[in-house]
Design a protein that fits this description.
Pfam families: Bravo_FIGEY, fn3, I-set, Ig_3. 27% of the residues are buried. Among the domains are: 97 residues, Immunoglobulins (Immunoglobulin-like); 92 residues, Immunoglobulins (Immunoglobulin-like), CATH 2.60.40; 97 residues, Immunoglobulin-like (Sandwich); 82 residues, Sandwich (Immunoglobulin-like), CATH 2.60.40; 92 residues, Immunoglobulins (Immunoglobulin-like, Sandwich); 90 residues, Immunoglobulin-like (Sandwich), CATH 2.60.40.10; 74 residues, Sandwich (Immunoglobulin-like); 89 residues, Immunoglobulins (Immunoglobulin-like), CATH 2.60.40. The protein is built from eleven helices and 86 strands.
Length: 1181
């Protein structure tokens, strides 16, 4: 049996009756998308298990994996071969804490004693889930039986089969043929290996004679290689047979093996049949003998071979079709043909099928009490499989709330008793499927699981996906709003996915802003805010352009870009789609917007590409560089067809260096009359390589030729030949395979060869005592391949230039290495120590130099998160950290707190990675938790409210409690006194009493582990005022008696103020008559500067500030801006009024003017009214 991942089809039934089921099944994708949060009650779910066919390495401890989640966390038990397995009775077997995974120590007992059929059960109070039947078997790599093989003697041209017959292994071995030097034997249309490992010769040749045909079997389970005894094959050619056996054979017998029409070696007969399972590989092979070697072709009757899944292997002798489907059933024909005829074989292929899911395994189903739903186990197979259901691993009892109908269980009016794990088992003769799907009956208000205030970034005109993962029972309805919530987001620009994700098909700058996701069901509402920023795309404003540069000159490629100001671009340059070459040159200069090559060489020619990457997009542009130079001088000058007055001169053009030769110039020297002086004789177009030259009598001619291209003239033809003056440069030795050595060098130019017949004398020997130099000559090449070398062995190398005139100077010795092979050993003694909750240091023992078998490049640490201790992460994401050099330790950064991790280490060289070390497991310690998932205010009253929250999405440890802080906030956002409340870990709500009404409060809630407190989630709420109190206040204010009382009090205050004002001004310094006599009518007198009627109040008693007034630090009373103030009209403390309070004159006496009087200018001297005076006094009382 097998447990599949949760997914597929599930549905809620909203109408009663069998006829509603097909329609409601269409809703299943939404139900399947819901994931029950782990803080809610739920039955167990198997999240990870070992494969059905679990083949173990007999040299390593055994791990049988079984992980599950649920609330409460499930307990685990096992059966072996159908019987209960009591772990406590087996001291060498332990079960991991909070896990069902078994770890078996094989140090005391052999691994084969633990073979059997294992099944894991995960159980809590809500149900039981079971794993597949896990068949544990030990991998095996038996030895070949020792046998003495007789030599095989065959006649040239006949067919031959060399049997391999490897021992049966588990898993089956991989077969290959090699010689004594571990070199793979060459295969071709004539010689090839069959599917069973035998080596077939369609016809043998003399060169097939050898005594080291060795069949090797590599067993992947134990990583071991076994070899068969070598087979000796001797091929007799027809001439030797004619010389020694003519008396025994007639002509027909002797030559009958020469040429013949094909016949099949395998398969036998003209027809055969094959049965293949759906989803597996279909392999058919036809190997024919004949001479000449037959060609193999394949056809299918009635249809074409499937494109993309068809492969022709072993030189067309094997037809392989991957992922077989029902359409591959039919008749296939292979044809073997040569010039003498053809032969056919037909395969009748039948496709069967083990059970397979049609639309995925059944999904978990979450329902509210009283709802309807259906579990569907839609599977197929060939023959049709049998489907059975169980509940909590027990037969389903008859129940009015559910009905089993073939591949469905229909639930109606569900109750909490329906919560359980239901098993669907689908089986036929070729296999089985097992799936667990739980039904969880819950009533749960909606919650949004996406982290709050998550920020998304997208490039303009690209698609944006805003996540809103949610949960609730009944299933919440999801709506999205932007900014002001004026309307929901729908229409052609938006698409709402079943999982709550909002898709903006084409993002524009106006789409930036705040988005709100709201989840609603009958039990409540939850919302979350996310933010979208639409960025401008990265653009290349100036692309690199094609350049043609003379060798030795500089060149610059420009690549100017425009990008969004908030994105940081990085520019990378490539040459011919690879990184810029790393050598001793320093001519490459990379600037922020350009690449410069200061000394261009021929090797710099190619295509240069600038790539600009940001975190959101990338762009690129390319341009070609062509390196040109003056042409090499022509060579191999030759004179022909000489007459008394003419001769034909021919030559071979030199290298053009990417610039075509435009013309050749022929010059001559007269050694009799003008020795050392060269004269232009004629020129010919660059397409010609000969010229008919006219001669003058009594002249001794010496000719030379120059070539011209767009760069300039070449050097003239060399005057004489000789031995090479130099040897090739750049000599190096590297291998491309573990058993070869490639010696390469930079060849000499024609000019450097100093004469015809240029060759290279290649000398090499293994760098060890007693090795002899091996020499070979190479012409027209710049490399030489040495086969049959030891793996990664040092060699001494020399390459010497040779021409027809002799050898060049003695070459220098260079040390190279034969080819690398992947390392054969793995790091050992792995240790792990956690620095903190997010980083750990890994240590290992490095491998020996002998086992590296190449240039050590470094070590790679592969690690992955198995699961969080509070949450399972089913998708294993393996990360790889690479460390150069001979490292023995490394730090793994960015780990998740309170999680289980696994890792192993590999060493790697230039060939690749070695075998992995043993896998080590470790756990990170607790860290501070993330913020609570949600914080919701409910039940607000006049002086209290209730806060409800969900535990953090990332607890990062055991939650030990919560801290709630809250404080009032006024209208200007000033914070009041903060209150702190400690809460227990199991609390998810709290009611706060004695709050101030009509007050806004801000709440901060964070979770704690033993490490400390995590970040807080914030929320604000307003305490509402009691409407009844407001109503009572309005009623009193509108009563008539209250209005009359207020008017009477106001009138009484007014009378008292007038009396006080009159009494205050009766004690002036001068009589009113004198005052009038001292001053004439102001209308008839011009106003002088010193007649300014404004000033400070001079009464000594009034220097004291009135109650409620503000006095500046210098003791002066500043002038109020109000027009009703008495200070605006006074310069002293004495004013006189009539008895009715009217102003009768301006006081006089010693006054002190303001310092700023002159600056303020003349003021109006109009007397104020008594009403204004009263308002002024009111402001002081």
């Amino acid at each position: 049996m097998r447990q599949e991942d949760v997914g597929g089809v599930g549905a809620r039934l909203t109408m009663k009756g069998r006829r509603t089921v097909p329609l409601l099944l269409l809703l299943g994708q939404l139900v399947a998308a819901l994931e029950v949060p782990l803080d809610l009650p739920q039955p167990p779910t198997i999240t990870s298990q070992s494969p059905k066919d679990h083949i173990i390495d007999p040299r390593e401890n055994i791990e049988i994996r079984c992980e599950a989640k649920g609330k409460p966390h499930p307990s685990f038990s096992w059966t072996i071969d159908g019987a209960d397995f009591k772990i406590e009775e087996h001291p060498n077997i332990i079960m991991r804490p909070n896990s069902g995974t078994l770890e078996v120590d094989i140090s005391q007992r052999r691994a084969e004693s633990f073979e059997g059929v294992y099944q894991c059960t995960a159980e809590n109070k809500h149900g039981k889930a079971v794993s597949d039947n896990i068949v544990v078997r030990q991998s095996r790599s038996p030895l070949w039986s020792k046998e003495k093989l007789k030599p095989i003697v065959v006649r040239e041209g006949v067919s031959l089969v060399l049997p391999c017959e490897p021992p049966a292994g588990l898993p089956p071995p991989l077969i290959f043929w090699m010689d004594n030097n571990f070199q793979r034997l060459p295969q071709s249309k004539r010689v090839s290996q069959s599917l069973n490992g035998d080596l077939y010769f369609s016809n043998v040749r003399r060169e097939d004679s050898r005594n080291d045909y060795i069949c090797y079997a590599r067993f992947p389970g134990t990583q071991t290689i076994q070899q068969k005894q070598p087979i000796n094959v001797k091929v007799l050619n027809l001439d030797s047979i004619n010389d020694t056996m003519a008396a025994f054979y007639n002509d027909t017998d002797l030559f009958s093996a020469d040429e013949r029409m094909p016949s099949f070696l395998i398969p036998k007969g003209r027809h055969s049949s094959k049965v293949v399972l759906r989803g597996h590989k279909l392999d058919m092979e036809c190997i024919a003998e004949g001479r000449p070697t037959p060609e193999i072709s394949w056809t299918k009757d009635g249809s074409d071979l499937p494109a993309g899944r068809t492969s022709f292997l072993q030189f067309n002798k094997t037809l392989q079709i991957d992922d077989v489907s029902d359409s591959e059933e039919g008749v296939y024909r292979c044809t073997a043909s040569n010039k003498f005829g053809s032969v056919h074989h037909t395969f009748h292929v039948t496709v069967k099928a083990a059970p397979y899911w049609i639309s995925g395994p059944p999904s978990n189903l979450v329902l509210s009490p009283g709802e309807n739903g259906v579990l569907t186990c839609r599977a197929s197979g060939k023959p049709k499989p049998l489907i059975t259901w169980t509940k909590n691993v027990m037969p389903i009892e008859k129940d009015d709330t559910m009905k089993v109908e073939d591949d469905m269980i229909i639930f109606r009016d569900v109750k909490t008793s329906n919560s359980a794990v239901y098993q669907c088992n689908v089986s036929n003769e070729f296999g089985y499927l097992l799936a667990n799907a739980f039904v969880n009956v819950l009533s749960e208000p909606p919650r949004v699981l996406t982290p709050v205030n998550k920020k998304y970034e997208v490039i303009r005109n690209h698609r944006a996906l805003l996540d809103c993962s949610f949960f609730g029972s009944p299933i919440p309805n999801i709506t999205w709003f932007k900014d002001s919530r004026s309307s929901t987001l729908d229409g052609d620009s938006y698409s709402l996915h079943d999982n709550g994700t909002l898709e903006i098909r084409i993002s524009r700058p106006r789409d930036s802003g705040k988005y709100t996701c709201v989840a609603r069901n009958i039990l409540g509402i939850s919302e979350n805010h996310v933010f979208l920023e639409v960025k401008e795309p990265t653009q290349i404003l100036k692309q690199p352009e094609y350049r043609m540069i003379k060798r030795g000159g500089p060149v610059t490629f420009e690549c100017k870009v425009k990008h969004d100001s908030s994105l940081i671009p990085t520019m990378t340059w490539l040459k011919d789609d690879e990184e810029l070459p790393e050598d001793d040159r320093s001519e490459f200069t990379v600037e922020p917007e350009s690449l410069t090559i200061t000394d261009v060489m021929d090797s710099d020619a190619g295509m240069y590409t600038c790539i600009i990457n940001t975190t959101l997009d990338h762009v690129s542009a390319s341009a070609e560089l062509t390196v040109v130079e003056r042409p090499d001088p022509p060579t191999d000058l030759e004179l022909t067809d000489q007459t008394k007055r003419s001769v034909v001169l021919t030559w071979i053009p030199g290298n053009e260096y990417n610039s075509p030769i435009k013309k050749f110039l022929i010059q001559y020297e007269d050694s009799l009359h003008h020795r050392g002086h060269w004269h232009n004789l004629t020129h010919v177009p660059g397409t010609r390589t000969s010229a008919n030259l006219k001669l003058s009598p009594h002249v001794h001619y010496t000719f030379r030729v120059l070539a011209l291209n767009n760069v300039g003239w070449s050097q003239p033809t060399a005057a004489q030949c000789g031995t090479p003056d130099e040897n090739p440069t750049g000599v190096q030795g590297l291998g491309t395979e573990p058993n070869n050595l490639i010696i390469s060098w930079k060849p000499l130019t024609r000019l450097q060869s100093n004469g015809p017949g240029l060759q290279y004398k290649v000398m090499y020997r293994e760098k060890k005592p007693g090795s002899e130099w091996i020499t070979t000559n190479v012409a027209n090449n710049s490399r030489f391949v040495v086969s049959g070398t030891s793996t990664f062995a040092p060699y001494e190398l020399k390459v010497q230039a040779v021409n027809n005139y002799g050898e060049g100077p003695e070459p220098a010795v260079v040390v190279g290495h034969s080819g690398e092979d992947v390392p054969k050993s793995a790091p050992t003694e792995l240790r792990i120590s956690a620095h903190n909750s997010t980083a750990a240091e890994v240590q290992w023992k490095t491998v020996s130099n002998d086992s590296i078998r190449g240039f050590l490049k470094g070590y790679k640490v592969h690690y992955w998160r198995e699961h969080g201790i509070h949450r399972h992460h089913p998708d294993r994401v393996e990360k790889i950290l690479t460390f150069s050099g001979n490292r023995s330790h490394a730090v793994l950064p960015g780990l998740h707190p309170f999680s289980d991790y696994s890792f192993y280490v590999r060493v790697f060289n230039g060939r690749g990675e070695g075998p992995p070390s043993t896998t080590k497991h470790f756990s990170t310690p607790e860290g501070v938790p993330g913020p609570p998932t949600s914080l919701v205010v409910s039940n607000p009253n006049l002086d209290s409210l209730t806060l409800q929250w969900s535990p953090p999405y990332d607890p990062n440890g055991h939650i030990t409690g919560y801290t709630l802080k809250y404080q009032p906030v006024n209208n200007s956002n000033e914070l009041g006194e903060e209150e702190v409340l400690a809460l227990a870990a199991n609390e998810t709500s709290v009611t706060l009493p004695n709050l101030q009404s009509s007050t806004r409060y801000r709440f901060y809630l964070n979770a704690k582990t033993k490490i400390g407190a995590g970040p807080a989630i914030t929320q604000e709420a307003l305490i509402m005022v009691d409407e009844a109190m407001v109503s009572r206040q309005v009623d009193i204010a509108t009563q008539g008696w209250f209005i009359g009382l207020m008017c009477a009090i106001a009138l009484l205050i007014l009378i008292l103020l007038i009396i006080c004002f009159i009494q205050r001004n009766k004690g002036g310094k001068y009589p009113v008559k004198e005052k009038e006599d001292a001053h004439t009518d102001p209308e008839f007198q011009p106003m002088r500067d010193d007649d300014c009627p404004f000033g400070e109040y001079s009464d000594s008693e009034d220097h004291k500030p009135l109650k409620g007034s503000r006095t500046p630090s210098n003791g002066t009373v500043k002038r109020d801006d109000s027009d009703d103030s008495l200070v605006d009209y006074s310069e002293g403390g004495d004013r006189q009024f009539n008895e009715d309070g009217s102003f009768i004159g301006q006081y006089s006496g010693k006054t002190t003017s303001r310092d700023t009087a002159a600056a303020e200018g003349p003021q109006s001297s109009e007397a104020p009214s008594p009403i204004n005076a009263i308002h002024s006094l009111n402001s002081f009382v």
